[in-house]
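Quick log. Single chain, no ligands specified.
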Amino acid sequence: MDTRTALLAAAAALLLAGAVGAVAAPDAIVDPREVNERSGDVRIVDTVVSPGEVRGETATLRLGVDLRHRGPAVENVTVRHRAIGVDSGLLVDETTVDAGTVDGGGERTVNGTVDVERAGGYRIETVVFADGERRAVQTTRVGGVEALTPDYADSRVGFTESSVWPTVAVSVREADNETATLSVSLSVTNRGDDASESLDLRVLVRQAESNVIADEASATVSEVRPGRTDTVTTTVEVPADYNYYVDAALWSDDVLIDETQGVANLNPRETISADETVEEVEFAVEDFSRDEGAVDDGADDAGADGAGRTGDGTPGFGPVVALVALVGAALAARRRR
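-> predicted structure:
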């Protein structure tokens, strides 16, 4: 038998074996396009992420996965969600939702959740399985989780934000050479749809230079109707001739809801403003040194009328200022040595 005859015989044998196999196992040779038509097709159309319960350290993310189905029913469908830290690449949480049988065509939404920490960003990987076989994959990135407000601190009531009407208004009710009684009025607005519950208002008055609390007060903010603004007034008594920061905060069951700040300038020679930016600098003794020949024209006035007087028994922050001056003089003497 020559080579040509041998090749033809081998080819005929292969064809005969294929025909016998097709008859014995008719499902062995199937058009791939017929697989999806026989088992149905399911894929991810979209994934929607929304905040769920927000706690102090963690938050629940709600995941709505839209599945599109076509063809025969697809059984044993499950949807797996994995939350992976963007920076660390570590798995934070994993959940699996049993969607059962998907049929009927069209789209269907499968809801799930993952729990993540309120810090950093996350990559949400969603995979759809049918009978343990991976059918579809989609990845969604989530960032800014730390900006979510915890449920216990979520309130539509807060201090009024206005460019003209003052949030904190301070006026002098009474004054003498030693003390001043200040009337502090604060505007509170309800930005929600329902009337608010009662809130606690707390006010601290801090002397600007020393940061010492001069006085504090509290009041109750009664029910505020939706879209309305109420004014709450309280009084404090402080030493005269100083400048003060007026810190105000709204509390609900000992939870801080909102805060704001105003000022009270009682020293006509120097004023302060609210929301100042504080820049940290390195400590340097030379910043506090002065020339030996320098003359302070206001020294006598300060001794008689200013904030640093202590000899006449006037109450205030004189001892604090004297202590700061004593420390500065000691540092300067040490530097000269």
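The first helix runs from residue 3 to 24.
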